[in-house]
Amino acid sequence: MKFPPFGLPFRSQSASTAPAPRTTLAAAMEQSRYRLMVTAAVVTTVFATIGVKLVAATLFSQGGEPRQHHALELDSTTTNRADIVDRNGNLLATSLVTQSLYADPKLISRPEEAARKLVSALPELDYKEVYGKLSGDKRFVWLKRNLTPKQQYAVHRLGVPGISFEREERRFYPAGNLTSHVVGFTGVDNNGLAGLEQGFSKRLNEDPATPLQLSIDLRLQHVLRKELTATIQEFSAIGAAGIVYDVRTGEVMAMTSLPDFDPQDPTGLNPDTLFNRATLGVYEMGSTFKIFNSALALDSGKIRVSDTFDAVHPIKIGRFTINDYHSLHRALTVAEVFQHSSNLGSVRMVQLIGIAAQRAFMAKMGFMRPTALELPENGWPLAPNPWREVNSMTISFGHGISVSPMHTVAAAASVINGGVFHPPTILRRQPGAEIPGEQVVSRQTSDMMRRMFRFVVADGTGKSAGVKGYVVGGKTGTADKQKGRHYQKNSRMSSFLGAFPMHDPRYIVYVLVDEPKATAKTYGYATGGWVAAPAVGRIIKQIGPLLDVPTVDENAPEILNATFLNAAGSTNWAQQAPNAPSSAAPPPPKGSTVASFPTPAKPR
């Protein structure tokens, strides 16, 4: 045992190592240091994590801009009805998410104050109507459907109890009036009420992610509507219809009916504006029906294009007499009957063919049933029953049977495209897909009809439809309108069915003008050759380049070999037929396209 040095007090080992007692202040300081250390560790961890994510986002995820396809993927799931687009993908109809305003009157304690606030935010609402709804006994009442974001914000700021919003969709039509009769429109609940919106309502709802693609080309639609509008204004007409048609596929490239409407707000309109003249309206087509009478005659094998028929003596049946609008006072070949639109020649041709054959041919052309077009507005033809001799005569020049413009165009396409009838469609046919078709006339008949189409424009009543380089052909038509049980002489439908290029037909352009009025510029005529043919020419001139149809030299040998026909019925352009009828008589004016209805014979 060691002892301390001399003079120092003695302390035991246990006494020297005992700890001093801890104070309250020391304990608090130690606890604070511990908490600070924990807090610092947490903050450091959080900021380290954020830093790592920022570095990963900026250096390893290709920048800070969000990828565009993410937004598109999100947008594609927001609506429950598919878009409608034209053949080039241009948007014709789409749905946007909106909010609609409703109320639970049981939760509104002061309906008069709530109604006053709502009307102040939405001035278009009627105070009495809103107050009546808010003070009623129902648990759910609509106040306004499809609010704009600004309107929704204004109502939301009011803070009125019992007022809420419901997510809905609203249909928008970017093309507006341009495609109104084709696309149609929906009601407030997004149910289709007209056009393709109605006809394909189930398809649009069941497959919202896949747009419905039409055969319509918005560019052609614009040209067609513009020219029809100009024609209506020029001739003070009450309406018009137009169609651009692909004769090889049956696709409707453009279709317009005027007057049209705004599909965004179709309520309260005159029913005439909602009426589709191109597909629903059925009319007596006048001399354009001579297309089918001539095709019937040639395809029967009983008549050749060079055969002649009496066009001098009127035809009497019962108390009616059939005359030509402008007679040439001589016999006419089949080519001239078509060229000059002779009623007498047409009747004598069908008399040789027979009533049964005529009726069967018209049925084969689709004139006894609605077309296959996918619109709900599809008119039923009006055909005579029984089909008697007088009916056969008048039908030969376009009276006594009523069909729609779409009927006329689809049947005419089969006459010039090689003889194959393709059902018309408003949907785009996919490249390489099989095109349904039925041979209705022979290729030889179709070839001759192409020549006759060209003959009308080159040297007949359709000259004003010609467009240099596009080898246009066609047929004029004018028919007096029937009002009640009588035909009105100054109330007519004037039309022209044009096709191009006639050496290799691709498209038909059809224009129908309802009740045009004659002008000084047209020398008092308001017939197809003066009214509709010039419009078709203007349309072809504008759409030809859009459709990539090349222009050609119309006098080139290969073009003449495919399209030439003269008055004698010869197709040899290099050598005129020696026995061709004299053409010294002046050509009839363009007014000769009227298909005059038989008039009562004068009493003897």
TrEMBL record:
Keywords: Carboxypeptidase, Hydrolase, Membrane, Protease
GO cellular component: plasma membrane
Domain Penicillin-binding protein transpeptidase, first and last residues per copy: 243-539
Annotated segments matching region Disordered: 1-21, 571-604
GO biological process, any: cell wall organization
Domain Penicillin-binding protein dimerisation: from-to ranges: 79-189
Compartment(s) of residence: Membrane
Matching Gene3D superfamilies: 3.30.450.330, DD-peptidase/beta-lactamase superfamily (3.40.710.10), Penicillin-binding protein 2a (Domain 2) (3.90.1310.10)
Biased amino acid composition, Low complexity: 11-21, 574-583
Single Gene Ontology MF annotation: carboxypeptidase activity
Protein name, as recorded: Penicillin-binding protein 2
Organism: Azospirillum cavernae
